[in-house]
Amino acid sequence: MGRGVGLGTVLALMMAVTALSLPSIIMLKRVVKLPLLLTFVGVVTAGILTIGFTSNEVTHWFI
Fold first, then answer.
1. What is the DSSP letter of 55?
2. Where are the domains of the chain?
C-alpha cells in the first residue's frame, strides 16, 4: 500500500474508539472497582497496540 493510512492503524483506531471511549469507561466505573478498571484499560490498550503494529507489519504479505 503506497498511500494512505496503514490497515493496522485503521484497525487499532476503530477498536480503540469503541473499547476505550469515555462513556464506556464511565459506565464500567459504576460497575467495577478502580484497580480492575485500570487493569482492563491497560490490557485492552496493550492488545490494541499489538494488533495494530502486527497488522501493519504483515499487511504487505496479503495486499
1. H
2. 7-62
